[in-house]
Amino acid sequence: MTSHAADTTAFRSLVHKLSPSITKMIRMDHSHVLLTFHGYQPDTSPARKQGIVDTLCLALEIHAQLEEEIFYPAMAEVAGGNEVLAKAKPEHDDMRRLIGELRAMAPGDLAYDETVMALMRDVMHHVADEETVLLPEAERLLAGRLEALGAQMTKRRLQLAGPKAPQIAINSVKAMPAGAMLMAGGLIAGGWLLSRAWRGTARM
Fold it and tell me: b/e per residue, 138-169, with b = 16+ CB within 10 A?
C-alpha cells in the first residue's frame, strides 16, 4: 500500500471511530438548532437576529440534506410504510420555503419575526415526530448499521459544511455571546480543516 493510500485509509478509519451513531447525530443537530433559536427574541438587535437566522437556516438546510440522502433511504428499506417517514420530506420542503422567505427579508421587516416563529413551530413539530417515533424505530430496525450510517453522515457533513466554514463563522460571531464565539470559532475552524483534509485524501 502506498503512503497516500495508507493516509487515506487511516483518515477514514479515524472519522469512522470519532463519528457518533446516526441517531445520536440527528439528536445533536436538533439540540443545536433549538438552542440557537432560544437566543432569538423580538427585542434582539437586528444584527444578532440576522446572525441567529442565518445560523439556523444553514444548519437546517445541511441537516435536511443529510437526512434525505442517508437517513431516510436507510429507513425506507426497513420501515417504508412509516407515516412519520412519509411526511418528513414534505415537511423539509415547507421548511425550505420559509427559509427562502426569510432570506428575502431584512430583520426590520414587519413579517420577519412572524416568519421566524412559523419556521421554528414547524421545526419543533418535525423534531418531536422524529424523536418520539422515527429515531426509536431506527434504533430498533437499524441497530447493526447505526455507527456505519453515522460515519457516512459525518463524511457527507464535512463535504457540505466545509466550503461554508467562513460563512458559518461569520454567522456565529453575529449570533452568539462573546464567550461562546471563541469556542464556536475553534470548532468551526477545526471542522473546516478536517473537511479539507478529507477532500485531499479522497482525491489521492
Answer: beeebeebbeebbbbbbbebbebbbebbeebb
